[in-house]
Amino acid sequence: MRSLIVILSAFALFLGSCGYHLGSPRPDEMQGVKRLYIKIPGNETQYPGLQADLANHLTDALIQDTTYEVGAKGFSDAVLETTILRVNYDRTRASVRDGIRPEELDMRVKVKWVVLREGEPVMSGESVEDTRFFLSDSRLTTARDNAFPDALSRVSRKIIYNISSSF
Length: 167
Prior knowledge:
- It contains 3 helices and 6 strands, in the order αββαββββα.
- It is α/β, with parallel strands linked by helices.
- It has one domain (33-164): Lipoprotein like domain (Double Stranded RNA Binding Domain), CATH 3.30.160.
- The protein is flat.
- The mean pLDDT is 83.
């Protein structure tokens, strides 16, 4: 019985050491950053209120990613500044009865982002994500408002991935 425990322990130790680590998963520019402050985004579109939604989605994406902690203003190693540049729509599918009336639209959100460390930019980029939504007997504004959370969530995850991953 004792030899079985020794063999199983040795086997578990062997399997536990099979992992590999080639380098830090963080980009070189972000080495030493543990806490990231997310500044309220700017908004260059005609849609009011998107700034708070984007900030919430960025915070959620940062928490789910676990590479960095969410930091408070003045107590963070870096600051993430974002600006919503554009929201575009493309008709994906038209109504069978009325070729002008859209039934399905594609919403594309473009966000510019920059990570500042001690006031100096260390990483920057632009992220674009899209989502599709349907207009089945609803108003365009209602359908659009219902599609914004998905589009902002997608672009937030992409931004956080770009900041967190060295790939």
